[in-house]
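So, can you check?
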Amino acid sequence: MATVLKNVLTFTGLAVGVPASLPHLLNVHGVPVKPHLVLPQVGGFFVIADQNNVTVTRLASGGSSVEVYVEHWHTIEDAEPPGSLGTLTPYILQPGNSGTGQVAISAGTQVAQTGTVVFSNSNNISFGMSNNSVVTASAALGGIAAGTQTGTAGTILFSNASGVSFGMNNSSVVTATVDGIKAISASNAEVSNGAVFFSNGGGVTFGIVGSTITASVQTVGGTASGIAMIVGTATQSTGAVVLSNSNNVSVGYSASTITFSAAFGGIAAGTQTGTAGTIVLSNSNSVTFGMSNNSVITASFYQPSIQKVVGYTATGGETDFSVTMAAVANTNYDVFAGLAGVSLMPILDMPLGTANRALTAFRVVPSGTLSTGDVLRFFIFAS
């Protein structure tokens, strides 16, 4: 490669604050060398150079393109004063600026390239300067308040309390964890994050006062279904309902279950009384018992048909008489007798054996003596 001691580089398409580099191609017999002099054509750019490249950064006042002159001093031209120029090369001239370079300071969306930059006190930060060269800054802590107290100086400690635990990462990040409600479940659903809503339903209305959840139940008679107990003709829709022991029935409560027990007083018939076990109603005296649907007791009475009516007319003073009847073939008979217009009285109740035997005659001794014209009738019923 031929020796190159001078060159002009053209930079285009430059953006503010974005560095762009081009090779300067300076060399001596093919060996790259650092330029001794660098000169942009116009101001508004920050320029640096090394053994291979020139780098240009556009400032806010600069344009989108610039030409840069570079030069390497060779032989006699490189004759430097005793001690050499050292770090003074490359010597970069900035048109419109003094010194070996241009300094810009940016804050937010603004850039200051010329004049004096002033640090103003703001947001509790105060600036100062010492020795005409050292900029200082101090921040005033406004304070941290919690409850009725405020800390304005020293170290603020976050203490664990009420289920909240504090920590710190990398000596700068404060962390906090809450040991609160993990989840709320209702029926077969569960909510473990987000907001939980209490919806009105089933006669229950929810509300909130400050930080307290309230619930009210609509009683009977309102627009919603309430809770009531009806017994007989009375209705209880508010307050507590008490089930009292009465009429040999005792009421109890265990594990959300209401229990009832009844004390059986007993059933008496004749000279006997049954107070426990099963009472059996037996068929007797033409009365037959039964039961339907395992709960309804039935009874039927058998009225036998009249088989024979026999009459005897008194002639006066009879106390001993007989009546003869034709044979009546039946197995069992009930025989009743009574005066005309007087209730019957049983005088005979006897089996007569098989159907081929018959009642033929019987004798009656009435209470008292019959008068003339009294009629004594005999009735024979087949049972």
